[in-house]
Structure formats: structure tokens, C-alpha cells
Amino acid sequence: MGAGHTITAIYEIIPIGVKSDFIKETDNLKYQKKQINQDISTEVATIKTRYKKPDGHKSIEFNIPVLNNPMELKNTSDNYRFASSVAMFGMLLRNSEYKGSSDYNQVIKIAENAKGKDDEGYKTEFLRLVKIANQQKL
Q: Which residue in 136, 133, 115, 132 sits closest to 124, CA to CA?
């Protein structure tokens, strides 16, 4: 990525103790004990990333805590909901094992309700592609 670019990453976090079909059994850790620091109980993860200034040679690390602040999809921003619909569409096209009960109609509904301003028409074009895929049952 270059200066001025952005990236959107969407993760599903499954907390410790929550039953999930997606979590596989793993071997016990050999060099590290499983522990939860009670002082950070409001956090569920930490995002660690690095960047370089455009003229820099050394990367700079910064960490961002992910707070345990669950929110219903309907209460998130238009951009977040639209990005979620795009991710869901990708999982449907790939027939991903992680698609859950998602379907094309759900993608269309979320995207339409989150479309917002669309000056370049990309969101409208995305919706058109989803509707074609739904008709073809891709």
C-alpha cells in the first residue's frame, strides 16, 4: 500500500468459551501459558501494525486495542454495512464454509440499506452484479 491508501479488514471474533463449529481443537501451547489478564478484560484483541513515512526507512509500530463493545449490524455505519455485504457476497461466490446462512437476498437487502451516497456509481454496480448472480444462482 502506498501513502493515502486505506484497507478494510473484517474479522469475526469468537470469544473464549463460546461454542462454534469453526473452532478446531489445537494442541496445547508449548512455550506459553493460556492466560487472561483481568486488567484488559474490556479488550478482545489487539491489532498490531507497522507503517513507514513516505520518505522513511524505518517502520513504526502501533497497536490498537479492539474493545469488547458488541453492536448489532443495523447500528453500524453505512460504510461498515456495505463492506459487510461485499464480504458476504464474496463468501457466497466461493461457497465458503464460513458463509453460514447468508444468501444473495440478504446481501442485496444489506447493501441497499447501506448504499448511501454513490457519486461514482460503484455501489449501484455492485448491487447489479449481486442481482445477476442471484438470478443465475452462482
A: 115
Judgement on whether residues 54 and 80 belong to the same structural domain of the protein = no
Cell of 131: 442481482
Does residue 111 lie in a domain region? yes
Contacts of 98 (CB under 8 A, 6+ apart): 12, 22, 91
The 8-class DSSP code of residue 97 comes to: T
* pTM beyond 0.85: no
Does 7 reside within a domain? no
Q: Cell numbers 446462512 correspond to what residue?
A: 101
Tally of domains within the chain: 2
Q: What's the grid cell of residue 77?
A: 455505519
CA distance 3 to 94: 31
Evaluate whether residue 16 is within a structural domain: no
pLDDT in tens, 69-127: 888 999 999 999 999 999 999 999 999 998 989 999 999 999 999 999 999 999 999 99
| Domain span at 117 | 73-136
Task: Give yes or no: residues 120 and 78 share one domain.
Answer: yes
Q: What is the per-residue pLDDT across 19-73, written as a single tens digit (0 to 9) for each? A: 888 877 777 767 766 665 655 568 888 889 888 888 889 999 989 998 888 889 9
